[in-house]
Amino acid sequence: MLTGAGISAESGVPTFRDAQTGLWAKYRAEELATPEAFHAQPRLVWDWYGWRRQLTARAEPNPGHLALVQLQARYPELTLVTQNVDGLHSRAGSRDVVELHGNIALDLCSRDGTPVSQYRDGGDIPPRCAECGAYVRPGVVWFGEALPRAALERAEAAARSCEVALSIGTSGLVHPAAGLPLLAKRHGALLIEVNPSATPLTPHADFVLTGPSGVVLPALVQAL
Ligand code: BJW
């Protein structure tokens, strides 16, 4: 099962390709989530992630997240793979979530990618790694960066072996995650898409459940 930003929309977390609002309206998310943007304007990118960190910390899991917890209780072999960095699946109670694009709550050293638990004194923005003095960056995967190898391998193994694949709330535009539902289908899985809008995956899906995941998923779980 693969989820994307749409599953958190009903928790008040904007999807990635929604137009941004307020302070951030003049920027496109795709332009800020890159190593090049961080290199050129580290403070701008750090502040954007700071704003999003606050937003996700305040958000609560919605009925879509909770339905997937119930589904996993019923089918313990279910592998939940998410592109989301908001941690809401784990906070809802899902176990062993495969986070393909990292987690926004984590801090990493921008020099070597190791987790940072302490900033160097000095009040820099972005803060600096206490060990080496490089800027601290959010623990997410930007465009052009490799996905965490173990997470991608687990996701691909699950796609190759599952009987049913669900693609929920993702535009299916960002690779390699976008290839997972089709990988599952090529290996014989039944493919179900849950989304209020059509995506490039829609023509390949065996069933398309059109609607918000906070409505569709609880109904699906109840019907099983
Ligand atoms: C609802 C709803 C409701 C609304 N209910 N639904 C093959 C082909 C072409 C390009 C590439 C390729 N392979 C790789 C690339 C390049 C690139 C890429 O994919 N580019 C494309 C855009 C063209 N990929 C990469 O760069 C990746 N890295 C890589 O491949 O590295 C190779 C490498 C190997 C070895 C060494 C070095 C490099 C990295 C991709 C990282 C993506 N990162 C981001 C940012 C994360 C941090 C952050 O959050 O700031 O991840 S980008 C952004 O997109 C974010 C998301 O996880 C991801 C997917 O977006 P998602 O979840 O689909 O959201 P939206 O907004 O697009 O869609 C929301 C959907 O919800 C919509 O469909 C709505 O209808 C729906 N919805 N309300 C249910 N209530």
Describe the model.
By secondary structure, this protein is of the alpha/beta class. It has a domain at 2-13 and 61-101 and 147-223: Rossmann fold (3-Layer(aba) Sandwich). Helix content is 35%, strand content 15%. It is built from 9 helices and 8 strands. The strands form 2 sheets. The protein has a 6-stranded parallel beta sheet, with helices on both faces. Strands 4-5 form a two-stranded antiparallel ribbon. β2, α6 (88-92) and β3 form a beta-alpha-beta unit. α5 (63-74) packs parallel to α9 and α7 (149-161) packs parallel to α8. The chain is globular, with a radius of gyration of 18 Å. The model has no long low-confidence stretch (mean pLDDT 96). The structure holds ligand BJW.
Topology (elements, then pairings):
Layout: E1 2-3, H1 6-9, H2 29-32, H3 35-40, H4 42-58, H5 63-74, E2 81-82, H6 88-92, E3 98-99, E4 102-109, E5 136-140, H7 149-161, E6 164-168, H8 180-186, E7 190-195, E8 207-210, H9 213-223
Parallel strand pairs: 1-2, 1-6, 2-3, 6-7, 7-8
Antiparallel strand pairs: 4-5
The chain binds ligand BJW.
